[in-house]
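Researcher: We're teaching a course module on how sequence relates to structure. For the next exercise, students receive a sequence and then see the predicted structure as C-alpha cells, so they can try to spot secondary structure elements on their own. Here is the exercise chain.
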Amino acid sequence: MKNVLTVAGKEIQEGLRNRWVLATTVLLAALALTLTFLGSAPTGNVGAKPLDVVIVSLSSLTIFLVPLIALLIAHDAIVGEAERGTLLLLLSYPVGRWQVILGKFVGHLAILAVATIVGYGAAAVALAATGVAIGIQSWLAFLSMILSSILLGAVFVSLGYLVSALAGERGTAGGIAIGIWLLFVLIYDMAMLGLLVVDQGRIITAGLLNVLLLLNPTDVYRLLNIGSGGAGAVSGMGGIAQNFALSPAALAAALVAWTLLPLTAAALVFSRREL
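Model: And here is the predicted structure for the students to work with:
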C-alpha cells in the first residue's frame, strides 16, 4: 500500500505542476456556475425545484466533459512515460507493475475528485446563497450526482490506462482515447436511437434495451442521475427509468464493474509489456 500511495502522490504532484488540478477545477466551476444561474432561472414557471434543474444541467455537462478530461489525463500514463524513459526508472525501484497502475489510478482519480467536488460544490453553494429553499431530498440527489460523476471519471481513467498499456506510441493512444470518447458519448446513443426507430419494437424488447444501456457507462450514469425523482421529471427520462429493471444501487455497481474490468485488463497487459 505504501508503494501505491507513493506513486499516487507522484501523479498528484505532476498534476499540480502541469496545472491539471487547477485547470479542471476552474473549468468545471465556471461551467457549473453558468449552468446553475442560467438553468435555474425558469424554474418558477415550470414548478421544478431549482436544485433538480441544476442536477440535470450538471449531469449533462458531466457526460460530455468528465470522460474527456479523464481520458486526456490517463491516455499517456504508460506509453507516455515509456517514451520519456521515466517508466524504466520508476520500475527500477522495488515496486510492482500492478502497484504502478493502481497508484496512478488513485492519483488521477484524486485529481478528478477534487476538481468535481470543488467545481460542482461551488455551484451548489452559490445557489444556496441566493436564499432559494432546497429540500433534503434535493441535497441527497446532488451529493449522489457528485459521487457518481467521480465514478464515471474513474471508468474513463481505467479505459485510458487500458489504451495506454496497449498503444505503442503516445499519438496513437491519444487518437484511440478520442475515439473512445466519441463512441460512448456521441455515436453509441445516436446509433441506438436510429436502431430503435427502425426496429419499431419488433426485435429490441425492454430487456434487450436494458442490456444495451448497460453497455454504455454514460447511459448508466444518465439513468442514475436524471432518470428518477425530480430530475427525471425535468429531464423527461422518468418514463425510461420506470421501465428499467435495475435499481440505483445496481446502476452504481455497473459503473464500479466498468471501472474494475478495464483497470484489471490494463494491469494484465502492462505486466506483459516489454519496455
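Model: If you want an answer key for the exercise: The chain has 14 helices and no strands. Residues 2-272 form one domain.
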